[in-house]
Amino acid sequence: MSKKPDKPLHMFREVWSKFENRVSTRLRPQEKWVHPKDRIKRWKIFEGDTVKVIAGDAKHQIGKVKSADMFTNRVWVEGVKVGRRTSPNEISNATDQSEKKGGWWLRPTLKAIHVSNVMHIYPDDLKDDSIPDKDKRRVRTRWKKVDIDGNGTMRWRRIVCGTDNVIIPLPPRPEKSEYKQEKSPWDTSKELASEMTWSVSKDYPLPQGVIDELRDRHKPWRYNYLHKNRP
């Protein structure tokens, strides 16, 4: 009798392809994967937040979150942990010929940071430019409903732990690029689309007697084929 595996079967499943080993690793990087049970359920750090790195080579550095991956619990911070990545000559913007090695260009790129290695900064320290980045206080935050407008409407906001009124402001939402579709001869004109092509009927979809019976909540039966012809 075979032993039951300790892990789910989908963790052992591997997609086999004869072309897998024929493609360069530069064009086929290994994807990061995190189990769903280990993913963060409710994030406190969003794109546009100014955070401070608390661990790693970029410790005490401050930057703005450029993007976040909620499936792998990673963030990319502008100007922090910048590395190099090889890319073909066609897609690289490098102008220095000395950076060319082996037919590939080395272009600067941001490296991912685990979200547990970054924290928010106290709002007062963030506004004071005289404080060096190393001495700016890092704080933990929690979600709490706060009456911001003073009219009794409670909204969820990020509050500094240990305080009741120090709020970490939410970053502005990124602007969505407008989708501009090219005109086509098969497009329907605005006048034709707004034209009234159907007539409004004032008749009920069911007989009036049936509607009155459906509105009566004290009757246990409802409209069916036995009462279809009932007046």
Automatic annotation (TrEMBL):
Example GO CC term: the record gives: ribosome
Q: What is this protein called?
A: 8461_t:CDS:1
Is the keyword Ribosomal protein assigned to this protein?
A: yes
Reading the lineage from the top rank, the first entry is Eukaryota
SUPFAM superfamilies, sorted: Translation proteins SH3-like domain (SSF50104)
Similarity comment: family membership: Belongs to the universal ribosomal protein uL24 family.
* A GO BP entry: translation
